[in-house]
Design brief:
Blueprint (H helix, E strand, L loop, with lengths): L39 H16 L8 H8 L3 H13 L3 E4 L3 E4 L4 E4 L5 H7 L4 E12 L2 H7 L6 E11 L2 E11 L6 H4 L6 H8 L6 E10 L2 H7 L6 E10 L5 E10 L3 E4 L7
Parallel strand pairs: 3-10
Antiparallel strand pairs: 1-2, 4-5, 5-6, 6-9, 7-8, 8-9
Helix pairs in contact: 1-3, 2-3
Length: 270
C-alpha cells in the first residue's frame, strides 16, 4: 500500500490592506512604517494629495497661511511638502500667482516611434523649436557609436521638444554626413526627423540600444527648457540601427522629470 500523502497545515489568513483611492498620484502603499511615526511634512503631503484630488487639474491651492492653520503645522513644514510635490511634477508654482495642481505627466513609450506620433497619441500637439543645425566633427566615442572614423563629419540637429507649446525636452541628434549628404536639403528642422528619414530617404529602422538615467540639467539646458536646474531630469541615450545592423543615428534626449515619464511592455525571453 502506498503511503498517504502528508496533510499540509492550512495557511494562516493574511491581513488584507484596503485599496487606496483611485489616483495615479498616490503610491499603492503610503509607506507609513509600523511604528506609525512619519515626518510632519509627509503627513501634510498626504493631506495635500487628497486636497488636490478634490480641487482638480489647474486649480489654485489655498494660501499657505490658510493651509498651515488648517493642518496645524508651521508654514516651513507646509512649504517643504509643497516643494516636494512641485519637484515630483504634481504641483506647479507661478511666481506672484500661487501654486496650482499640475496636469498628469506625459507618458513617452520606449519604442522606435517618432516623438510626433507619441505626443499625438496623448491628445496633444507636438512641436519643435530649432536651437542648432550644424556640421559636427565626431570625437572617438561618437564615431564608435555611429560606425565612422574619428574626425568624420556628422550632421548635428539640436531642438527643444514641445507639447502644446510647452517645452518638455531637449534633443540632440547626430547623423553620419557621408550616409546622409542631402539630409539638410530635404529636412524641415521643425518637423519630424523620423518621418523625413523614412519617407524621404527610405531609411528603415530595425532596432535600437537605449539607456535611461536621472541627471540634473546644465545651466544652458535648464534655460532652454525654462526649468529649475535643481529639478530632476530624465536622460535617454539611443543608437538606432537599420536591418543590416548599420548605425543610423545617435540621439541624446533630456526630458523634464516633472512633466514626463516612460512606459514600455516587457516580454519573457524566448
Amino acid at each position: 500500500m502506498s503511503a498517504e500523502p502528508p496533510v499540509r497545515p492550512a495557511r494562516p489568513a493574511l491581513p488584507i490592506t484596503p485599496a487606496p483611492p483611485d489616483s495615479t498620484a498616490r503610491p499603492y502603499r503610503d509607506g507609513i512604517p509600523e511604528h506609525g511615526r512619519v515626518p510632519k511634512s509627509y503627513a501634510v503631503k498626504m493631506r495635500l494629495l487628497g486636497l488636490m484630488d478634490e480641487l482638480g487639474e489647474d486649480a489654485l491651492l489655498p494660501p499657505e497661511r490658510e493651509l498651515a492653520a488648517e493642518y496645524s503645522v508651521a508654514r516651513s513644514t507646509l512649504r517643504s511638502a509643497i516643494a516636494e510635490l512641485v519637484m515630483e511634477g504634481r504641483l506647479r508654482s507661478a511666481r506672484g500667482r500661487g501654486t496650482y495642481v499640475a496636469p498628469p505627466k506625459l507618458v513617452q513609450p520606449l519604442s522606435l516611434a517618432s516623438y510626433t506620433e507619441s505626443v499625438r497619441s496623448m491628445g496633444m500637439t507636438p512641436g519643435r523649436r530649432v536651437v542648432t543645425v550644424e556640421h559636427h566633427v565626431a570625437q572617438p566615442d561618437l564615431a564608435e557609436r555611429l560606425g565612422i572614423r574619428p574626425g568624420d563629419l556628422t550632421v548635428h540637429l539640436e531642438r527643444v521638444l514641445l507639447a502644446d507649446e510647452e517645452p518638455i525636452g531637449l534633443e540632440s541628434t547626430y547623423l553620419p554626413l557621408d550616409r546622409f549628404p542631402t539630409i539638410l536639403e530635404v529636412l524641415r528642422p521643425e518637423e519630424s526627423l523620423y518621418r523625413c528619414l523614412q519617407e524621404d530617404l527610405g531609411v528603415v529602422f530595425a532596432e535600437a540600444d537605449e539607456t535611461v538615467e536621472t541627471v540634473l540639467a546644465a545651466p544652458r539646458e535648464a534655460l532652454l527648457l525654462g526649468t529649475n536646474p535643481a529639478l530632476p531630469m530624465l536622460l535617454t541615450m539611443r543608437t538606432s540601427y537599420d536591418p543590416h545592423g548599420v548605425p543610423i543615428e545617435r540621439v541624446r534626449q533630456l526630458f523634464r522629470g516633472d512633466r514626463i515619464g516612460f512606459a514600455t511592455r516587457l516580454r519573457a525571453a524566448t
